[in-house]
Amino acid sequence: MLRIFLLTVFGASAEQDCRANTRLGHEGEFPLVMLTSIQGSGNTWTRQLLESATGIYTGSIYNETRIYQENGFKGEIEPMLSGKTIGNKNHGLRHLAEAGAIILVIRNPFNTLKAEFNRKHTIPEETGGKGLGHVGHADPAAFNTTDWDDFVEKMSGRWVRHYHRYITESANKNIPLKIVYYENLQTDSVKEMEEILEFLEEAIGFKADNKKKRLSCISNAQMNAFKRVKKPLGWEIFTPEMTKTINDVISSLQTTIEQHNFPAMPEYTKTLPSLIEPVSEK
């Protein structure tokens, strides 16, 4: 089943099966490497890339049976502290203090919030009645409800708190941390994965075998199984008030990032005509 899934995603030839030679580590082989983000930030897609680049299965605190059985994530059901996996998915703070290294995936919060709302409100027709979908879509009408309003207010605050906590606490505990911007992964997956491999070698002493071959496979593959197909709604789903709130949390996180000397975020802020201050007449 693993080979069928990968060939469907990566193409028709075995040479493009980038996770074909991926393995689990033995008990205690690796320290805990956290792969953390807010929901909707592309964590599962990043796991695909990470497994392809390292040749080691990733893990998760969530133990999702479905992606273990259907999507080839063989490390999904391993205990998070088993030392058998590299890159353990976590949308919270549990086990942060036990981490040997942290990979922090940050995505534009406007896109993150929309993606997570789509996941939580995926229409049943897109999942065959199997529950929430990693790449599903909500009924467009849901973006015109108070559910959306409440969701944006809650999640925008959680977005900035999550990343602020990881950046500051990793610094306080001397845990190596690598920030990965989702948009950079989209633009050049190979470059970003190469930098992650360099980070893992420096942080935990891990060296991927057949590194050049693995990165070349990623370059030639189309890893779109966990990337949501965009469906334009035809209207602006973020009100001026929402936009101001999200712009504020972006600014706050950028300050934290600068204070800890990490590479600056891409330009995430959004400008709407109604938010532009009028020019005073002289």
Describe this structure in words.
Belongs to the sulfotransferase 1 family. Residues 102-223 form the Sulfotransferase domain. Keywords: Transferase. Its EC number is 2.8.2.-. The longest helix has 27 residues, at 146-172. Helix 2 (43-54) packs across helix 8 and helix 5 runs parallel beside helix 9 (240-259). The chain is globular. Strand 2, helix 3 (65-71) and strand 3 (88-90) form a beta-alpha-beta unit. Strands 2-3-1-4-5 form a 5-stranded parallel sheet, with helices on both faces. It is of the alpha/beta class. It is built from 9 helices and 5 strands, in the order H-E-H-E-H-E-E-H-H-E-H-H-H-H. The protein has one domain: Rossmann fold (3-Layer(aba) Sandwich), CATH 3.40.50.
Spatial arrangement of strands, main beta sheet: 2-3-1-4-5
The main sheet comes to:
5 strands, parallel
Helix content: 40-55%
Order of helices and strands: HEHEHEEHHEHHHH
Count of discrete domains: 1
Oligomeric form of this entry?
A: single chain
CATH topology: Rossmann fold
The first-level CATH class is given as: Alpha Beta
| Distance between the amino and carboxyl termini | 71 Å
Mean pLDDT across the residues is 87
Number of helices: 9
Shape, principal axes of CA atoms: globular
CATH architecture field: 3-Layer(aba) Sandwich
Radius of gyration: 20 Å
**Secondary-structure class:** alpha/beta
Strands, count: 5
GO molecular function: sulfotransferase activity
Pfam families: Sulfotransfer_1
EC number: 2.8.2.-
Keywords: Transferase
